[in-house]
Specification:
This protein has helices at 19-29, 58-63, 77-87, 101-105, 109-115, 140-147, 165-188, 198-204, 207-216, 252-259, 263-266, 274-279, 281-292, 297-306, 317-321, 324-329, 371-377, 382-391, and strands at 10-13, 33-38, 52-53, 56-57, 67-72, 92-95, 120-125, 192-197, 233-238, 241-246, 311-313, 332-337, 341-346, 394-395. The chain is an alpha/beta fold and 398 residues long. The protein is elongated.
Length: 398
Protein backbone atom coordinates (compact mmCIF):
# COMPACT_ATOMS: atom_id res chain seq x y z
CA UNK A 1 0.00 0.00 0.00
CA UNK A 2 1.26 3.48 -0.90
CA UNK A 3 2.10 5.75 2.04
CA UNK A 4 -0.72 8.01 3.14
CA UNK A 5 -0.28 11.82 2.98
CA UNK A 6 0.50 12.45 6.66
CA UNK A 7 2.58 9.41 7.53
CA UNK A 8 5.45 10.49 9.78
CA UNK A 9 3.41 13.26 11.44
CA UNK A 10 2.92 12.63 15.17
CA UNK A 11 -0.02 14.11 17.08
CA UNK A 12 -0.98 14.25 20.75
CA UNK A 13 -4.79 14.33 20.86
CA UNK A 14 -6.49 15.65 24.03
CA UNK A 15 -9.86 16.01 22.29
CA UNK A 16 -13.25 14.83 23.46
CA UNK A 17 -16.79 14.29 22.15
CA UNK A 18 -16.98 15.45 18.51
CA UNK A 19 -15.45 18.68 17.12
CA UNK A 20 -11.72 18.06 17.65
CA UNK A 21 -12.03 14.23 17.61
CA UNK A 22 -13.59 14.63 14.14
CA UNK A 23 -10.47 16.54 13.06
CA UNK A 24 -8.24 13.88 14.64
CA UNK A 25 -10.18 11.14 12.86
CA UNK A 26 -9.46 12.72 9.47
CA UNK A 27 -5.79 13.22 10.37
CA UNK A 28 -5.59 9.53 11.31
CA UNK A 29 -7.33 8.55 8.05
CA UNK A 30 -4.53 10.41 6.25
CA UNK A 31 -1.81 8.48 8.03
CA UNK A 32 -0.83 10.64 11.00
CA UNK A 33 0.11 8.81 14.20
CA UNK A 34 -2.47 9.92 16.76
CA UNK A 35 -2.01 9.37 20.49
CA UNK A 36 -5.41 9.81 22.14
CA UNK A 37 -4.95 11.06 25.71
CA UNK A 38 -7.87 10.35 28.05
CA UNK A 39 -8.55 10.61 31.75
CA UNK A 40 -8.26 7.28 33.58
CA UNK A 41 -11.53 5.53 34.24
CA UNK A 42 -14.37 6.94 32.16
CA UNK A 43 -12.18 8.56 29.52
CA UNK A 44 -13.67 10.68 26.75
CA UNK A 45 -17.24 11.75 27.59
CA UNK A 46 -18.45 10.34 24.27
CA UNK A 47 -17.73 6.79 25.47
CA UNK A 48 -21.09 7.21 27.21
CA UNK A 49 -22.91 7.90 23.90
CA UNK A 50 -24.74 5.10 22.09
CA UNK A 51 -25.17 2.98 20.09
CA UNK A 52 -23.25 0.27 21.96
CA UNK A 53 -21.91 -3.17 21.18
CA UNK A 54 -20.44 -5.13 24.11
CA UNK A 55 -20.61 -1.93 26.19
CA UNK A 56 -18.38 -0.13 23.65
CA UNK A 57 -19.69 3.12 22.14
CA UNK A 58 -19.69 3.04 18.35
CA UNK A 59 -20.11 6.82 18.45
CA UNK A 60 -16.72 7.03 20.18
CA UNK A 61 -15.21 4.46 17.81
CA UNK A 62 -16.35 6.39 14.73
CA UNK A 63 -14.52 9.59 15.69
CA UNK A 64 -11.46 7.99 17.25
CA UNK A 65 -10.63 5.30 14.72
CA UNK A 66 -6.96 4.84 13.92
CA UNK A 67 -5.80 6.35 17.25
CA UNK A 68 -3.69 4.81 20.04
CA UNK A 69 -5.06 5.11 23.58
CA UNK A 70 -3.06 6.58 26.47
CA UNK A 71 -4.65 7.31 29.88
CA UNK A 72 -2.93 9.97 31.99
CA UNK A 73 -3.94 11.55 35.29
CA UNK A 74 -3.08 15.13 34.38
CA UNK A 75 -3.76 16.34 37.92
CA UNK A 76 -0.81 14.30 39.20
CA UNK A 77 2.66 15.89 39.00
CA UNK A 78 4.04 12.76 37.29
CA UNK A 79 1.20 12.99 34.77
CA UNK A 80 1.89 16.66 33.99
CA UNK A 81 5.59 15.93 33.60
CA UNK A 82 4.81 13.06 31.23
CA UNK A 83 2.52 15.23 29.11
CA UNK A 84 5.27 17.81 28.56
CA UNK A 85 7.83 15.09 27.80
CA UNK A 86 5.51 13.67 25.14
CA UNK A 87 4.77 17.15 23.76
CA UNK A 88 8.50 17.56 23.13
CA UNK A 89 8.34 14.59 20.71
CA UNK A 90 5.26 15.44 18.63
CA UNK A 91 4.48 17.74 15.71
CA UNK A 92 0.93 18.71 16.68
CA UNK A 93 -1.27 18.93 19.76
CA UNK A 94 -5.06 19.17 19.41
CA UNK A 95 -7.64 19.79 22.14
CA UNK A 96 -11.15 21.12 22.65
CA UNK A 97 -11.41 21.51 26.40
CA UNK A 98 -13.28 24.48 27.81
CA UNK A 99 -10.92 27.42 27.41
CA UNK A 100 -8.30 27.57 30.16
CA UNK A 101 -8.55 23.93 31.29
CA UNK A 102 -4.97 22.92 30.42
CA UNK A 103 -3.66 26.31 31.56
CA UNK A 104 -5.11 25.73 35.04
CA UNK A 105 -3.27 22.40 35.17
CA UNK A 106 0.00 24.13 34.28
CA UNK A 107 0.35 22.37 30.93
CA UNK A 108 -1.19 24.89 28.55
CA UNK A 109 0.15 26.20 25.27
CA UNK A 110 2.84 28.43 26.77
CA UNK A 111 4.30 25.53 28.79
CA UNK A 112 4.11 23.24 25.76
CA UNK A 113 5.78 25.82 23.52
CA UNK A 114 8.70 26.09 25.94
CA UNK A 115 9.50 22.38 25.59
CA UNK A 116 8.75 22.30 21.84
CA UNK A 117 9.22 25.69 20.09
CA UNK A 118 8.22 24.16 16.73
CA UNK A 119 4.94 22.82 18.10
CA UNK A 120 1.72 23.30 16.14
CA UNK A 121 -1.08 23.68 18.68
CA UNK A 122 -4.68 23.38 17.49
CA UNK A 123 -7.67 24.07 19.69
CA UNK A 124 -11.43 24.34 19.32
CA UNK A 125 -13.40 26.26 21.94
CA UNK A 126 -17.13 26.91 21.70
CA UNK A 127 -16.78 30.68 21.91
CA UNK A 128 -13.05 30.93 21.24
CA UNK A 129 -10.08 31.69 23.46
CA UNK A 130 -10.76 35.42 23.88
CA UNK A 131 -13.67 37.83 24.18
CA UNK A 132 -16.68 38.18 26.49
CA UNK A 133 -18.19 34.75 25.69
CA UNK A 134 -15.06 32.61 26.01
CA UNK A 135 -15.90 31.47 29.54
CA UNK A 136 -19.36 30.12 28.61
CA UNK A 137 -20.19 26.46 27.91
CA UNK A 138 -21.02 25.65 24.32
CA UNK A 139 -22.36 22.71 22.32
CA UNK A 140 -23.28 22.29 18.67
CA UNK A 141 -26.88 23.47 19.07
CA UNK A 142 -25.77 26.48 21.16
CA UNK A 143 -23.39 27.65 18.42
CA UNK A 144 -26.07 27.04 15.79
CA UNK A 145 -28.59 29.08 17.79
CA UNK A 146 -26.31 32.05 18.61
CA UNK A 147 -24.82 32.33 15.13
CA UNK A 148 -28.14 32.75 13.31
CA UNK A 149 -27.86 29.38 11.60
CA UNK A 150 -30.97 28.01 13.37
CA UNK A 151 -32.80 31.29 12.96
CA UNK A 152 -32.32 31.19 9.19
CA UNK A 153 -33.58 27.59 8.90
CA UNK A 154 -37.22 26.52 8.83
CA UNK A 155 -40.47 28.28 7.91
CA UNK A 156 -42.87 29.29 10.70
CA UNK A 157 -40.42 28.45 13.49
CA UNK A 158 -36.63 28.07 13.53
CA UNK A 159 -35.37 24.50 13.07
CA UNK A 160 -31.99 23.16 14.10
CA UNK A 161 -29.94 21.26 11.48
CA UNK A 162 -30.47 17.50 11.49
CA UNK A 163 -26.83 16.76 12.33
CA UNK A 164 -24.05 18.25 14.45
CA UNK A 165 -23.00 20.49 11.59
CA UNK A 166 -21.28 23.12 13.77
CA UNK A 167 -19.12 20.50 15.49
CA UNK A 168 -18.00 18.85 12.26
CA UNK A 169 -17.58 22.15 10.42
CA UNK A 170 -15.38 23.45 13.25
CA UNK A 171 -13.37 20.20 13.02
CA UNK A 172 -12.90 20.73 9.30
CA UNK A 173 -11.76 24.31 9.90
CA UNK A 174 -9.20 23.02 12.38
CA UNK A 175 -8.03 20.51 9.77
CA UNK A 176 -7.56 23.37 7.31
CA UNK A 177 -5.68 25.43 9.89
CA UNK A 178 -3.37 22.58 10.87
CA UNK A 179 -2.63 21.84 7.21
CA UNK A 180 -1.58 25.44 6.64
CA UNK A 181 0.42 25.44 9.87
CA UNK A 182 2.31 22.34 8.69
CA UNK A 183 3.12 24.18 5.46
CA UNK A 184 4.23 27.24 7.45
CA UNK A 185 6.45 25.05 9.63
CA UNK A 186 7.89 23.37 6.54
CA UNK A 187 8.86 26.73 5.01
CA UNK A 188 9.93 28.63 8.15
CA UNK A 189 10.80 25.96 10.74
CA UNK A 190 8.46 27.68 13.21
CA UNK A 191 5.39 26.45 15.02
CA UNK A 192 1.96 28.10 15.21
CA UNK A 193 -1.13 28.16 17.38
CA UNK A 194 -4.38 27.50 15.50
CA UNK A 195 -7.57 28.55 17.31
CA UNK A 196 -11.08 27.76 16.10
CA UNK A 197 -14.24 29.09 17.76
CA UNK A 198 -17.28 26.94 17.00
CA UNK A 199 -19.43 30.08 17.00
CA UNK A 200 -17.18 31.70 14.37
CA UNK A 201 -17.25 28.53 12.26
CA UNK A 202 -21.06 28.43 12.42
CA UNK A 203 -21.39 32.10 11.46
CA UNK A 204 -18.93 31.51 8.59
CA UNK A 205 -21.70 29.50 6.90
CA UNK A 206 -24.04 32.52 6.96
CA UNK A 207 -22.03 34.53 4.44
CA UNK A 208 -24.76 35.14 1.82
CA UNK A 209 -27.30 36.65 4.25
CA UNK A 210 -24.53 38.89 5.60
CA UNK A 211 -23.64 40.00 2.07
CA UNK A 212 -27.27 40.78 1.36
CA UNK A 213 -27.56 42.75 4.60
CA UNK A 214 -24.54 44.83 3.67
CA UNK A 215 -26.28 45.86 0.44
CA UNK A 216 -29.89 46.27 1.54
CA UNK A 217 -29.80 46.60 5.32
CA UNK A 218 -32.19 43.64 5.60
CA UNK A 219 -31.98 39.88 5.91
CA UNK A 220 -33.95 37.48 3.72
CA UNK A 221 -36.72 35.80 5.75
CA UNK A 222 -36.72 32.04 6.19
CA UNK A 223 -37.94 30.21 3.08
CA UNK A 224 -37.96 26.66 4.45
CA UNK A 225 -37.21 24.01 1.86
CA UNK A 226 -36.84 26.54 -0.95
CA UNK A 227 -33.84 28.65 -1.90
CA UNK A 228 -34.44 32.34 -1.11
CA UNK A 229 -32.68 33.55 -4.26
CA UNK A 230 -33.90 31.18 -6.99
CA UNK A 231 -37.26 29.72 -8.04
CA UNK A 232 -38.22 27.03 -8.59
CA UNK A 233 -35.39 25.76 -6.43
CA UNK A 234 -36.38 23.54 -3.57
CA UNK A 235 -38.44 20.58 -2.42
CA UNK A 236 -41.67 19.55 -4.16
CA UNK A 237 -44.22 16.90 -3.26
CA UNK A 238 -44.22 13.62 -5.19
CA UNK A 239 -46.59 10.67 -5.01
CA UNK A 240 -44.33 8.81 -2.58
CA UNK A 241 -42.32 11.54 -0.91
CA UNK A 242 -40.49 14.59 -2.22
CA UNK A 243 -38.16 15.64 -5.03
CA UNK A 244 -35.73 18.54 -5.14
CA UNK A 245 -35.72 20.62 -8.32
CA UNK A 246 -32.94 23.19 -8.61
CA UNK A 247 -33.14 25.84 -11.31
CA UNK A 248 -30.39 28.45 -11.12
CA UNK A 249 -30.14 29.36 -14.82
CA UNK A 250 -32.88 31.20 -16.71
CA UNK A 251 -32.74 29.04 -19.84
CA UNK A 252 -33.81 26.03 -17.76
CA UNK A 253 -37.23 27.49 -16.96
CA UNK A 254 -39.01 26.76 -20.29
CA UNK A 255 -37.34 23.33 -20.38
CA UNK A 256 -38.83 22.48 -16.98
CA UNK A 257 -42.25 23.75 -18.04
CA UNK A 258 -42.14 21.53 -21.13
CA UNK A 259 -40.94 18.48 -19.17
CA UNK A 260 -43.83 18.84 -16.70
CA UNK A 261 -46.45 19.66 -19.33
CA UNK A 262 -46.84 23.17 -17.92
CA UNK A 263 -46.03 25.15 -21.06
CA UNK A 264 -48.57 27.82 -20.11
CA UNK A 265 -46.43 28.81 -17.14
CA UNK A 266 -43.51 29.74 -19.41
CA UNK A 267 -45.54 32.68 -20.75
CA UNK A 268 -47.25 33.62 -17.49
CA UNK A 269 -46.12 37.16 -16.51
CA UNK A 270 -46.04 36.12 -12.82
CA UNK A 271 -43.16 33.80 -13.70
CA UNK A 272 -41.47 35.88 -16.41
CA UNK A 273 -38.00 35.69 -14.87
CA UNK A 274 -36.31 34.47 -11.71
CA UNK A 275 -37.05 37.65 -9.77
CA UNK A 276 -40.75 37.41 -10.60
CA UNK A 277 -40.83 33.72 -9.72
CA UNK A 278 -39.26 34.29 -6.30
CA UNK A 279 -41.93 36.93 -5.57
CA UNK A 280 -44.66 34.46 -6.63
CA UNK A 281 -43.03 31.40 -5.04
CA UNK A 282 -46.11 30.15 -3.17
CA UNK A 283 -48.35 30.18 -6.24
CA UNK A 284 -45.60 28.70 -8.40
CA UNK A 285 -44.98 25.86 -5.95
CA UNK A 286 -48.69 25.02 -5.95
CA UNK A 287 -48.76 24.95 -9.77
CA UNK A 288 -45.70 22.69 -10.00
CA UNK A 289 -46.88 20.32 -7.26
CA UNK A 290 -50.16 19.69 -9.10
CA UNK A 291 -47.99 17.75 -11.56
CA UNK A 292 -45.10 16.45 -9.44
CA UNK A 293 -47.56 14.88 -6.97
CA UNK A 294 -48.72 12.52 -9.73
CA UNK A 295 -45.23 11.01 -10.15
CA UNK A 296 -43.11 8.72 -7.98
CA UNK A 297 -39.87 10.26 -6.67
CA UNK A 298 -37.50 8.27 -8.82
CA UNK A 299 -39.74 8.40 -11.89
CA UNK A 300 -39.79 12.19 -11.66
CA UNK A 301 -36.06 12.36 -10.98
CA UNK A 302 -35.30 10.37 -14.13
CA UNK A 303 -37.73 12.40 -16.23
CA UNK A 304 -36.21 15.72 -15.21
CA UNK A 305 -32.61 14.58 -15.46
CA UNK A 306 -33.31 13.31 -18.98
CA UNK A 307 -34.48 16.83 -19.84
CA UNK A 308 -31.31 18.36 -18.38
CA UNK A 309 -32.96 19.72 -15.22
CA UNK A 310 -31.01 19.27 -11.93
CA UNK A 311 -33.22 17.09 -9.75
CA UNK A 312 -32.97 14.43 -7.06
CA UNK A 313 -35.35 12.24 -5.10
CA UNK A 314 -35.26 13.08 -1.39
CA UNK A 315 -33.83 9.91 0.12
CA UNK A 316 -33.43 8.58 3.61
CA UNK A 317 -29.90 7.78 4.75
CA UNK A 318 -30.81 4.10 4.46
CA UNK A 319 -31.88 4.55 0.84
CA UNK A 320 -28.63 6.33 0.03
CA UNK A 321 -26.46 3.72 1.76
CA UNK A 322 -28.21 0.91 -0.12
CA UNK A 323 -27.97 2.70 -3.46
CA UNK A 324 -25.46 0.85 -5.71
CA UNK A 325 -23.87 4.22 -6.52
CA UNK A 326 -22.92 4.68 -2.87
CA UNK A 327 -21.02 1.39 -2.98
CA UNK A 328 -19.10 2.48 -6.06
CA UNK A 329 -18.24 5.83 -4.45
CA UNK A 330 -16.77 4.14 -1.34
CA UNK A 331 -18.59 6.52 0.99
CA UNK A 332 -19.13 3.65 3.42
CA UNK A 333 -16.22 1.59 4.73
CA UNK A 334 -15.98 -1.43 6.98
CA UNK A 335 -13.95 -0.83 10.13
CA UNK A 336 -12.71 -3.60 12.43
CA UNK A 337 -13.01 -2.74 16.10
CA UNK A 338 -11.54 -4.78 18.93
CA UNK A 339 -14.27 -6.43 21.06
CA UNK A 340 -16.87 -5.36 18.50
CA UNK A 341 -15.95 -6.90 15.15
CA UNK A 342 -16.74 -5.20 11.85
CA UNK A 343 -19.06 -2.22 11.62
CA UNK A 344 -19.88 0.29 8.90
CA UNK A 345 -18.70 3.89 9.12
CA UNK A 346 -18.40 6.87 6.81
CA UNK A 347 -15.25 7.21 4.74
CA UNK A 348 -13.19 10.39 4.51
CA UNK A 349 -14.42 12.54 1.58
CA UNK A 350 -10.89 13.79 0.78
CA UNK A 351 -9.38 11.83 -2.08
CA UNK A 352 -5.85 12.12 -3.49
CA UNK A 353 -4.66 10.99 -6.91
CA UNK A 354 -1.45 9.26 -5.81
CA UNK A 355 -1.87 8.32 -2.17
CA UNK A 356 -4.78 6.82 -0.25
CA UNK A 357 -6.59 8.36 2.69
CA UNK A 358 -8.84 5.94 4.52
CA UNK A 359 -9.39 4.33 7.93
CA UNK A 360 -7.25 1.27 8.57
CA UNK A 361 -7.92 0.42 12.21
CA UNK A 362 -10.34 0.83 15.08
CA UNK A 363 -10.37 3.08 18.13
CA UNK A 364 -8.90 2.40 21.60
CA UNK A 365 -11.49 0.03 23.04
CA UNK A 366 -11.02 1.50 26.54
CA UNK A 367 -9.07 4.46 28.04
CA UNK A 368 -5.36 3.68 28.05
CA UNK A 369 -5.67 0.62 25.79
CA UNK A 370 -2.16 1.19 24.38
CA UNK A 371 -0.55 3.10 27.26
CA UNK A 372 2.42 0.75 27.58
CA UNK A 373 2.94 0.58 23.79
CA UNK A 374 2.81 4.38 23.42
CA UNK A 375 5.35 4.94 26.19
CA UNK A 376 7.65 2.24 24.83
CA UNK A 377 7.55 3.88 21.40
CA UNK A 378 8.33 7.22 23.08
CA UNK A 379 11.55 5.76 24.51
CA UNK A 380 10.54 4.95 28.08
CA UNK A 381 12.14 1.85 29.57
CA UNK A 382 10.09 -0.89 31.20
CA UNK A 383 11.15 0.24 34.67
CA UNK A 384 9.97 3.81 34.06
CA UNK A 385 6.68 2.62 32.57
CA UNK A 386 6.04 0.31 35.51
CA UNK A 387 6.71 3.17 37.92
CA UNK A 388 4.21 5.43 36.11
CA UNK A 389 1.62 2.67 36.13
CA UNK A 390 2.23 1.94 39.80
CA UNK A 391 1.83 5.60 40.74
CA UNK A 392 -1.49 5.89 38.89
CA UNK A 393 -0.20 8.75 36.73
CA UNK A 394 -0.64 6.40 33.76
CA UNK A 395 -3.29 3.69 33.49
CA UNK A 396 -3.62 0.60 31.31
CA UNK A 397 -6.39 -1.66 32.60
CA UNK A 398 -5.60 -5.38 32.57
Amino acid sequence: MAPRPLEGVKILDFSQVLAAPFCGMMLADMGAEIIKVERPGNGDISREYGPYINDISLYYCQYNRGKKGLAIDMRAEEGKKLVLELVAQVDIVIENYKYGTLEKLGIGYEEMKRVNPQLIYGSIAGFGTYGPLSHLPCMDIIAAARSGLVGQTGVDVPIKPGFSICDTWAGLQLLRGLSMALLYKHTTGKGLRVDIAMLDAAFYMCEVPVLEHSLSGAFTPRTGNHDPYFAPCGEFAAKDGHVVIALTEEHQWPILCHALGLQELADDPRYYNNEARTLSRAALTEEIERVTATYGRYELEQKLLAAGIPAAAVQTIGEFVNDPAAGELDVIVKTTQENVGDYLSVNTPIRFSKTPAFPVSGAPSYPGAQSREVLTDAGYCAQAINALLASGAVVQPA
